[in-house]
Specification:
The structure is a homodimer of 489-residue chains.
Chain A (H helix, E strand, L loop, with lengths): L12 H9 L1 H25 L31 E2 L6 H21 L8 E3 L5 E6 L2 E2 L5 E2 L4 E2 L7 E6 L3 E5 L7 E3 L5 E6 L2 H8 L2 E5 L5 E10 L2 E10 L13 H4 E7 L3 H14 L5 E5 L12 E5 L6 H10 L5 E4 L4 E2 L6 H10 L5 E6 L5 E10 L3 E8 L4 E3 L2 E7 L1 E2 L3 E4 H7 L11 H6 L6 E11 L6 H7 L3 H14 L2 E5 L1
Parallel strand pairs in A: 4-13, 14-15, 14-17, 15-16, 19-26, 21-27
Antiparallel strand pairs in A: 1-27, 3-6, 5-11, 7-10, 7-12, 8-11, 9-10, 12-13, 17-25, 18-26, 19-25, 20-21, 20-24, 22-23, 23-26
Chain lengths: 489, 489
């Protein structure tokens, strides 16, 4: 590395000439700029500029645990989620909600992603991004170098907060102070030797954490640069063996309540096309009837436990890479081909959910979300029939935020989001809300399944319909859980 | 911004003098270094240097979808996981496994974290890290500036790959080429005007993705710098209302099989101390017996569905922020205080799992994992009674990788990892393997629960004991799922 960064190796006379002609200017510029840039950089760093807003240059810090105070409130014509209760009760709830939100921001690492600006004309060379280490393990820091004008002596200072620094293979006479501590000073009268020492500097985090970061400070004379060190514990791969056919790739999952007649029609239709595929059924009927066919797993829940609880139970039992969600009153048709879903998912491994159409209805939507003010919370609006853009290479598919109740899901990705068991009667988009920014969702034409004709079930309708009290509870749930001020469906 | 970076505002005569004395040297240095550094930076970028190894300077690229070929194989005295089957069968399996691993790396964003080195003495100022945008939304790029020596004219080029660039509020006469395209050229005879234009440059991604990144190229004359743009779809908070007491914060979850006698002892002991806390029971007994007490949810699984399937079912039904895992043959003692777990978790929001001790046995371990060679896979060793370091501010607690079967878990975090339903009979550390790097785990002295005296159950023992075939299947499972070559418990 010292070889490569040795100035003598690559000079360009054209440029050299140009610079001679403006020596004075150059000299002035260098000194002016160093200081100007340093101030500027510091300001931006102190301001913790988030970089996502138009007028953010002087935004206040967004350090996870501390709620920043610069976000503006949002509005929509949707439901105002704040409960209408006594001021005292509300105050307690708001306090609890704010604390949970603070913990959430901290856990999301909101404090690990601050903006850093590289100053112009700094003689320091360093890794600006991508330097990742394992906690409490020594790692060589790549790319550190000083490339200053000739002088009698050179002295650089290095410092970190959550670890220690040292120079590998130190020899007698090397001028290194602070070996094995968090502040290191390296001096030499020879630039090549200094860079050789810099090329052997290592970092070892002294705190154990699976996901955090440190900030490296590197200074020479009046020049200072900073760069982040990502501290990340390695993960172990978790893969699914897809085997050789659809039966080892996909499990069909559904949730039922009282509608055994419909369920049996569905099962029969599945068996016509997929005689051996595994079917998982979550059942919270009042008087569960046994289902003991081959390759069917029947799970019995406490009566009326609810819709999302059942969906979450069902996916918790899947052992294949993908699962196909169907409602208990759907019916497989000649055109229903699970393989088509799998082909697209395999071609686009980043996809998490792929939705089809139920008796020709390709339902999909986009979610518009504003973070809103820190105390009030955000605003969420569901916009039907809108999509982000076509899915590259698949002209019949579009990228969206939510799809119909007939989709192929990536088991591990969907489990990470999950179906909130709180939602008992009514729930669909709520899953896609929880998955926003975590699930890449697409919807395709021509992936179709049928819907059985409606059969009257007095009892079913009674339980299925959401009571007024349930509705209120649900709104409060979104107020607290999703930190929402307005919700528009 | 142009104000702050205006050279005239902050000159330092001491430094100015120093630089005059070494004008020639400076001039030479500048030109040498610009080119040297540029070459060096390019080399490192092309080499996609990972920054985590000691001799990584010339490492080949690690672009997610392409398996890099520089990792060295690992060894341990543990079980060699590769199945001893016909070459042909093995070849098919290895091919499947490699493909799943490729997809895994791609999904983990292995291609989004490449190392970039900032060259020394570049006149360009730019955000090195922390610049994050929402997909397909226009964002102002912070900190762009040129700070060059005086000249007749200045011209900078900007380019990106996954989006378009433009200058806001463009006026007639502004020399901007490529407005709204992925390559932008800005020229001016006035440095302040150029920097004013640079301060208004916006980026808009043209591809929709929830989690990806772009690379920004910024050049002036022979100088080139690059920085990453993080493209991230916003997520909606998912919070749990902790309410005001332990009953609204914690659910007790367990899995039972045939041992109703033990289960009833456990339940009675819980009710002595926590009369109202919710208990969730997953039951895969051969002849399930009804359990219909208040605040108990009893889930009936297909017979002998298995240990981890039951655990995964149980946590899928939790609606509180935390759950307490207990085995069906534990017993609550006078000293068993769930509140103590909660206090520590609330004080350290980044903790995901907090383990206690079962009849005085505070079981915990560390996992040593080597990624190993790309084709062969990794090596994993479990080391009992080792920990990373004490949990700051809690002298009786240590940070570890795995704990005993008695722990408080953060519901959302544990669900993200989950209990692999494949593991039917034997399984404990497997959950912590899957959670490595994803769950921050601690173990504390003094958080104790009792273990009931062992009662003989012929049938239970028969099912509980792992058959030879099961053992083989399990080893193969780790071979494929965890991409392991050696596994040592």
């Amino acid at each position: 590395m010292t070889e490569r960064s040795n100035p003598i190796m690559s000079c360009n006379h054209h440029l050299l000439l140009k610079i001679f002609l403006s020596l004075l200017g150059a000299a002035l510029a260098i000194c002016f700029i160093q200081l100007g840039a340093l101030d500027f950089m510091k300001t931006l760093i102190e301001s913790g500029y988030s970089g996502t807003s138009h007028h953010a240059i002087f935004v206040k810090p967004k350090l996870g645990p501390i709620l920043s105070t610069n976000r503006s409130s949002c509005f929509s014509n949707g439901i105002f989620t704040r409960p209408s209760i006594s001021e005292k009760l509300l105050k307690d709830i708001m306090k609890r909600r704010a604390e949970e939100y603070r913990q959430h921001q901290l856990r999301m690492g909101a404090n690990l992603n601050r903006l850093i600006i590289a100053p112009a004309n700094s003689p320091l060379q360093y890794p600006i991004t991508g330097f990742t280490v394992s906690p409490m393990q020594k790692s060589l820091i790549p790319g550190l170098a000083l490339q200053a004008q000739k002088g009698e002596a050179y002295k650089v200072s290095l410092s970190v907060n959550k670890g220690v620094l040292s120079v590998e293979d130190l020899l007698d006479g090397d001028q290194v102070e602070g070996q094995g501590r968090s502040n290191l000073t390296i001096s030499s009268s020879n630039l090549t030797q200094l860079n050789d020492l810099l090329s052997r500097v290592t970092y070892t985090s002294t705190i154990y954490h699976i996901k955090t970061s440190d900030l490296f400070h590197f200074t020479f004379e009046d020049h200072e640069v900073m760069f982040p060190i990502t501290i990340r514990r390695q993960t172990i791969p978790v893969l699914y063996d897809p085997g050789n056919d659809v039966n080892s790739q996909v499990t069909i999952v559904t949730k039922t309540f009282l509608r055994y007649e419909e369920l049996n029609v569905l099962i029969k239709s599945i068996r016509m096309f997929y005689p051996r595929i595994k079917i998982i059924i979550a059942d919270d009927s009042l008087k569960p009837e046994p289902i003991t066919e081959k390759n069917i797993e029947h799970y019995i829940m406490p009566p009326t436990q609810g819709w999302f609880a059942g969906r979450n139970l069902a996916i918790s039992q899947v052992t294949t890479k993908y699962f196909l969600w169907v409602d208990d009153d759907f019916v497989f048709l000649n055109g229903t081909r699970i393989e088509s879903f799998v082909e697209i998912m395999e071609a686009v491994p980043e996809l998490d959910i792929l939705g089809g159409a139920v008796s020709g209805n390709q339902f999909y939507f986009k979610l518009k979300y504003e973070e809103g003010d820190e105390e009030e919370g955000g605003c969420l609006t569901r916009v039907k029939k809108e999509f982000h853009q076509p899915l590259p290479n698949f002209e019949d598919c579009i990228l969206v935020d939510g799809v119909v109740n007939y989709f192929l899901g990536r088991t591990d990705a969907v489990r990470r989001v999950g179906f909130d068991p709180f939602l008992k009667r009514v729930g669909h988009s709520e899953f896609f809300m929880d998955g926003l920014g975590q699930l890449l969702v697409a919807s395709c034409k021509g992936l179709s399944i049928g819907h059985q004709k409606h059969r009257p079930h007095g009892k079913y309708a009674y339980f299925r319909t959401q009571k007024k009290a349930d509705g209120k509870r649900k709104v409060y749930h979104h107020f607290f859980k999703n930190y929402l001020k307005y919700l528009q469906f």
